[in-house]
Structure formats: C-alpha cells, structure tokens
Amino acid sequence: MLLDMVAAVASGSDWADHPVTQTNVIYVALEGQLGLRTRVQALEHDRGGVYQKGIRYVFDACNVASTEDVDSLAVTALKHQAKFIVIDTLSASLAGTAEENSNSAMAGMIANVQRLTRMTGAAVLLVHHSGNDPRRGARGAYALNANPDVSIEVGRSGNERYWRLDKGRDGSHTKGWFRIEPIEFQPAHETEPLQSIVIRHVQDSDDTQANDAMVFAGPKPKTQERTDVALQAIRQHLSQLDLNGNEQRNPGEATEETIRKIVARAFKEMHDSGAEGYGSNHRAENVREAIQSLVSAGQLLRE
C-alpha cells in the first residue's frame, strides 16, 4: 500500500480518490529489501513506470534518532528536491540504538524528525507496527501515539483490508478499503515471468465484520490515557529475561510500592516529553487513580 501511495505522490495522480500534490520522493527502505525490487517492477508494469523517475530509493542505514544521519538524509532530500520522505520502518531505523518503550527517547526521536521537516520542507512518514492489541495504537512508548501530527492506521478485518485516518489535525474521519491482487509479468530483461502483488482500491467493503470494526472514537479522556500509560509501563517492567535471554511475559509480581514508582516514573517521562496532564502537582493522585482503575478492570491483581 505504501509503494502505491508513493507512486501516486511521485506522479501527481489521485490516490484512493483523494487529490495529490506531485513531488519527488525519498524512500528509505530498511526492511524487505530483497522483495522490494520485484514489487517495484510489478507496480511499474501495472502503472506504466513513468513515476519512478521521481523516486529515489535509499538502502543505507539511517537512524532517525541520530543527528548526523538525519542531516545526511536532509542533504539527499534537498538535492533530489523531495518533499515526501518515507522511513520504512522505524524499528529497523533505530536498530537497538534507542529504546522504543521510552517516552523521553521517542519524544527526542520525533523532535529530530521534525527538525528534518524544518530543514527540507518535506512531510516525513514513519512506518511503524501496532502492538499486540491494535486498538491501543502504535507499539512502544505512548509518545509514538501522542506526538505525531498525523497517524494513518492500516489493518485487516475479516477478509478486507483498510486504512483510516486515526489522528489528524482537521479531525476528518477519512478511510478507505483495498484488496491485494496477485500479478504475473515478464520484464524484457528477464527470461522467466515474475510473480508479485499490487493493491486495488475498492469503494466499499463487502465484509460486515470489517464495516462493524470501522468505528471512529473521539480522543481518549485524560484519565483513560493515563491508565493506558500506566499499564504499558507495568507490563514493560514485568517483562523479564531468563538465563537464556528469552523474554518472560506476564504474569509477573512486584510490590505495590514498586508499581507506584514505575507509574510515577512513566508519568514524569510523559511530562518531560511535553504531554499535558502529567505535571507534578497532582501526580501522586493520578498514580493512585491509574492503579485503582487497573485493579477495578482486573488487569492488575492486588494480593
């Protein structure tokens, strides 16, 4: 779906019935590099291939938490006159250099990406995965949900696939459906046909389950948001490593005093990253409230 979007931006053609402003594109491909060439060829065959002149693929390591790497990427974008930069994926970009579950680390990373935008005038799209529960949004620190200006969720429900504007400054609930279609083609320089996939945008889903899943909720109340942050911090603390380095998931145990300290530290990180509603004035009260909410919901057991 991302390659299809990039093709539309590079060519200036409508994407999913939405108008597009044409610009050159920088696509930083850090995952699935072996399969990318065939998918690009499939897209060229399906669309005619002219748009590729406006796309520059970057396969070198690029850490968006690094000032030097972002400066280098800005130079590339300015030389290419690109106003759209794609980082695919955020996890591969960080590659263990920054803690994905740390609000302060991820807020710093996003600030670095915003600096890239100011240097180039480009929109920067970070590809990131959801957690085990997609309803909770992006995997990792809460700053990955709270700090970006725009968030587009891509998912699958039943037999249908969808994208939707999960967060946007104008509050629009834009969404769309698409299907994946196999394609076989034979480029002139290949001796055998190649097989790959392209996507097809569809007007409406035929899947009742998928339609039922597309319920657009308003912003979470601050109390629920703090409870989510608290739960994420507790889960992270209780995920420990055994002697072989394998992660041991819940259930886990900690004293109530430890749990309070974990949640208070998470709230402080949220405050330091610029999030509202986590200040020191009512922090102790907010910590108690969040823990009690988790106990009442059965997600935290007090013995």
TrEMBL record:
Entries under SUPFAM superfamilies matching the protein: P-loop containing nucleoside triphosphate hydrolases (SSF52540)
Alphabetical list of InterPro entries matching this protein: P-loop_NTPase
Keywords: ATP-binding, Helicase, Hydrolase, Nucleotide-binding
Classification via Gene3D superfamilies: P-loop containing nucleotide triphosphate hydrolases
Top-level taxon in the UniProt lineage: Bacteria
Pfam annotation, one family: AAA_25
Entry's Gene Ontology molecular function annotations: helicase activity
Protein name, entry field: Helicase RepA family protein
Organism: Comamonas squillarum
